[in-house]
Amino acid sequence: MLFELTLFTTFTLHHLLIGSCLILLLTAATRLWRPSAELQSWIWTTAFAICLLLPFASLISSAESPAAAPATKVAQIAEPVMEAPPVTTGSAASAQTAPPAPEGGDKFQWQLSPLWISEASAGLHILLLVWLLGSTWRSVGVVLSIRRTRRLVRAAVPYEDCDKKRVPCPLLVSASARAPMAAGLLKPVILLPQSFVERFDSDRLAPIILHEWAHIQRRDLWVGTLQELVAIVFWWSPVMRLIERKIHVSRELACDMRAAHVLESGKQYAQSLLDCAELMITRRQNLMAMGLFSKKKDLAARINAVLKLKSAKKPKLLTTATACTVFAIASLGAAQEYAPRIDLAIMKSNALSRVEGERLMGVIRANDLPALTEMLNSGLEINTPVLGEGTALIEAVRHNRHEIAELLIGAGADVNLSSPGDGNPMITAAQHNRMELAELLYQRGADLDTVVPREGTPLIVAIRAGHDDMAEQLIEWGADVNKAAEWDGSPLIAAAMNGNLEIAKRLHQQGADVNGVVSTDETPLINAAYHGHLEMVSFLVEQGADVNLGVMANGNELRTPLNRARNNAVRDYLIHAGATE
């Protein structure tokens, strides 16, 4: 599932990036160049297709990425007997966003880090659910819209008072239609509301009918249907919504200009727009019907455009086709040259499926060295966390699999790689008191002071778990006795909470600050008082802890050693030591 989440998220960001660039480019170009509405409508339609298809074209396979395979596969490892396998090239970097290719001519490849995806997996699953619900809702709306349009067409009656030479398609009158519309893909018809026929004579209806006929001539019904189908999947995309808005506005204006050219009168068409504005609902009602207006604010712009009919040039089909082709080729060329590529080979190797993850963890728990060697030789990525389990190395440490841990480290397992909710290998060793594995990790470069949110540091975890020998060893190796972590305190705070006087003394000898404040966890003395450890309170005060040092918590709550004292013995001692609040 991690691969699918990574692909989904990367593709989404790629789509938004490409679409945003296209919108900015076209918006600037149309303002400077000011092409006709006809040309603008097809340019924006081309942008719609590019924005939809280009992210797919950016997907590349391992065949196109010669650098991908070596980065994601480990070297062949001999079957282990008693000795650890040879150390192979580390692959931890594959868990991060792929950097630009070093050789000239190679394209920049990228995808989101599976580690980030695993951390955000809960939120991404919610977004996927929202996307699915939105797509389902949109699909239902499309089906209902098609059914409504079919019912309108079947119930409509013919309208004969029209020039068949100008508009050869069937004209129908419907009492249920709320706006003029063109409908039908294979057999298009024009529907007129009964209210329009009753109010307007044939001359005043002519501009309306010609406008809808222009939609049919331009194949707008087909394009509109495609837009609606795409919107089922991309309903959430602001890029698609904005491009669709641009298409709709320019398309309506293009049909205005076509109808006005047939009438040879911009004034007549403008008057028709004003007449219709009194009757129409200003939004499109049906999937396969093109409404006359999109928004009220567009009416003035459309009237101004048709009134300039004489100065407006009607673009030729060849000009429009050439412009769209050039724009498409230029966009594709620029994207191929400059847009980042999505390497499926790297992404696939970086992400463990649920089945692969469960198998890997099962092999580690069973201490099955041959099976693990076979999996590594097949190119399995071992630095990708398995949701709810952590990394392979964390699992090996958790179950005290020393030879497995050596094999994993030799194959490139990152000794400092953390996993949300599972800490990192050294934290796991501290939590489960795996002394030998902790020494192995330390020798292989494990960071003793790494902070993992909601876990703390290895030293904090060891003290909190009551593993004094592990804590002593970490201190001896050089762990920072003052390294704090929000919501997990500091080593001395952990000792104060447990009342572990021996470790507290050891920490103090190494320079632990008895007045060290962690904003989310107060001070060692406040914690010792809160847990009622009188001997710890006495020791901290004797070493210089400030009995009146308070910390603001939970917004406006002042916490001090005295007001957090658990029992009277602690409270009396603090007052005797000079505590006043």
From TrEMBL:
Pfam (any one): Ank_2
Key words, A-Z: ANK repeat, Membrane, Transmembrane, Transmembrane helix
ANK repeats: 388-420, 454-486, 487-519, 520-548
Keyword Membrane applies: yes
Residue stretches making up the Peptidase M56 domain: 18-305
Lineage top rank: taxon: Bacteria
Transmembrane segments: 6-29, 41-60, 122-144, 317-335
SUPFAM superfamilies, per database record: Ankyrin repeat (SSF48403)
Gene3D superfamilies: Ankyrin repeat-containing domain, Metalloproteases ('zincins'), catalytic domain
PANTHER family listed in its UniProt record: POSSIBLE SENSOR-TRANSDUCER PROTEIN BLAR (PTHR34978), SLR0241 PROTEIN (PTHR34978:SF3)
Protein name: Ankyrin repeat domain-containing protein
Species: Microbulbifer taiwanensis
